[in-house]
């Protein structure tokens, strides 16, 4: 396979409702899209999931744009490589920058699946033609507003509710949610907002029978998470700490988690996501797909990844309308009345990219041809 050119496009998309975590509020997403093209005109699309600021991790929109335009894209254009599975190796000499790498790597996987005329999820080795879906609900202005959002998502059929938690929004909020909604599948995502000094708080929250606490401690830690897991009954789920299959192996051996969240951008694309899934599955650790406020292109890649065998818990792959008044793919991602998404039958990511919509949203673009 040889890539003739790579087109990078940054778009701005306003969210239908702000999304707040312990990092702050997001009202609008700056998203970098990558379109890779071969000499015969075949194309594949990928999406950069980095945030607008280096808060979730050290990568952010501006850093990814520079790395993609000046370093990574020139490394791939006109290079011969055997398959999409080898793209990661071509970029290996560049350290870190996994979200930037995933932007291109996932686009090549889409391209290759289209060339083979198979759905991407089958090309990746997926086995589940229908995936269970959950939702992630950010910190709200009031508990009553949180109740309204939870009820809306339960009415829509979602199988799991994730609420963001932070030191000002944790025990009492969860307690009220449990009293209002009973024993619904519920989890708390802390985005690294706590420390081991909060062990007693987490012990108290064991009473709520949550599915998991996601990344309660430092973003780069596994050692303290192992200490916390030994002290509490609720499963610890690692997110920001896991960048590779090696990270997953070490965390599992330390007893730092009982569940792993897999995000394509965080691990660097489909090839490494498959390795993380395999490592977890072979150690009886369930995984699920985390979300990064993706547009339809990133969401389609998440659907494909979520069909792999080890993804046994509902992920953050939800309907387009939860985030966007109009998505950049058609049809938009929708869930069934049973809270599932059916994997598409079309080749590649399985959705048509709305190029006219992307062009209207574009704020900058660059083509790399040599």
CATH class of the largest domain: Alpha Beta
| CATH architecture title of the largest domain | Alpha-Beta Barrel
> How are strands sequenced across the largest beta sheet?
5-6-7-8-9-10-11
Question: At the fourth CATH level, what is the homologous superfamily of the largest domain?
Answer: Enolase-like C-terminal domain
Runs with pLDDT <50, length 5+? none
Cα end-to-end separation: 16 Å
Shape: globular
Q: How much helix is in the residues? A: 25-40%
Number of domains: 2
What would the CATH topology of the largest domain be?
A: TIM Barrel
The largest sheet, given as strand count, sense and whether it forms a barrel, is: 7 strands, parallel
Q: Mean of residue pLDDT?
A: 95
In N-to-C order, the SSE pattern is: EEEHHHHEEHEHEHEHEHEHHEHEEEHE
Q: What percent strand?
A: 15-25%
Give the count of helical stretches.
Answer: 13
Rg value:
20 Å
DSSP summary, beta strand count: 15
Structural class computed from helices and strand pairing: alpha/beta
Describe the structure.
With 370 residues, the protein is of the alpha/beta class. It has 2 domains: 5-117 and 355-368, Enolase-like, N-terminal domain (Enolase-like, domain 1); 122-342, Enolase-like C-terminal domain (TIM Barrel), CATH 3.20.20. Helix content is 35%, strand content 21%. The protein has helices spanning 61-76, 87-90, 98-116, 120-123, 143-156, 171-181, 199-205, 223-231, 245-254, 264-267, 270-282, 296-305, 355-361; strands at 5-21, 24-37, 43-48, 130-132, 134-137, 160-164, 186-189, 213-214, 236-238, 259-262, 287-289, 329-330, 340-342, 352-353, 362-368. Strands 5-6-7-8-9-10-11 form a 7-stranded parallel β-sheet. A 4-stranded antiparallel β-sheet has the order 3-2-1-15, sandwiched between helices. Strands 4-13 form a two-stranded antiparallel ribbon. A hairpin with a 2-residue loop joins strand 1 and strand 2 (24-37). Helix 1 packs across helix 3 (98-116). The longest helix has 19 residues, at 98-116. The chain is globular, with a radius of gyration of 20 Å. The two termini are 16 Å apart. The mean pLDDT is 95.
């Amino acid at each position: 396979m040889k890539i003739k050119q790579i087109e990078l496009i940054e778009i701005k998309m306003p969210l239908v409702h702000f999304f707040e975590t312990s990092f702050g509020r997001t009202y609008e997403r700056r998203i970098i899209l990558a379109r890779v093209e071969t000499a015969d005109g075949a194309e594949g699309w990928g999406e950069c999931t980095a945030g607008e600021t280096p808060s979730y991790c050290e990568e952010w929109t501006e850093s990814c744009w520079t790395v993609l335009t000046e370093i990574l894209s020139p490394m791939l254009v006109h290079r011969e490589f055997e398959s999409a599975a080898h793209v990661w190796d071509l970029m290996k000499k560049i350290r870190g920058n996994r979200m930037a790498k995933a932007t291109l790597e996932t686009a090549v996987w889409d391209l290759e699946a289209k060339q083979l005329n198979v759905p991407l999820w089958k090309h990746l080795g997926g086995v589940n033609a229908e995936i269970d879906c959950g939702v992630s609900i950010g910190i709200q202005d009031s508990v009553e507003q949180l109740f309204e959002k939870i009820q809306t998502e339960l009415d829509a059929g979602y199988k799991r509710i994730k609420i963001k938690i932070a030191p000002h929004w944790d025990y009492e909020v969860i307690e009220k949610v449990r009293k209002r909604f009973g024993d619904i599948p519920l989890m708390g995502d802390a985005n690294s907002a706590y420390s081991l000094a909060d062990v007693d708080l987490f012990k108290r929250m064991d009473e709520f029978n949550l599915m998991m606490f996601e990344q309660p401690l430092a973003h780069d830690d596994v050692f303290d998470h192992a200490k916390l897991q030994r002290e509490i009954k609720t499963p610890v789920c690692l997110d920001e700490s896991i960048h590779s299959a090696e990270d997953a192996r070490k965390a599992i051996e330390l007893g730092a988690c009982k569940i792993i969240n897999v995000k394509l951008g965080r691990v660097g694309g489909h090839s490494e996501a498959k390795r993380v899934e395999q490592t977890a599955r072979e150690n009886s650790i369930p995984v699920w797909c985390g979300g990064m406020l993706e547009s339809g292109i990133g969401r389609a890649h998440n659907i494909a990844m979520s069909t792999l065998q080890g993804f046994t818990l509902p992920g953050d792959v939800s309907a387009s309308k939860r985030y966007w008044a109009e998505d950049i793919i058609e049809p938009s991602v929708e869930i069934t009345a049973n809270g599932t998404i059916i994997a598409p039958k079309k080749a590649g990511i399985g959705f048509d990219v709305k190029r006219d919509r992307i062009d209207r949203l574009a704020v900058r673009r660059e083509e790399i041809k040599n």
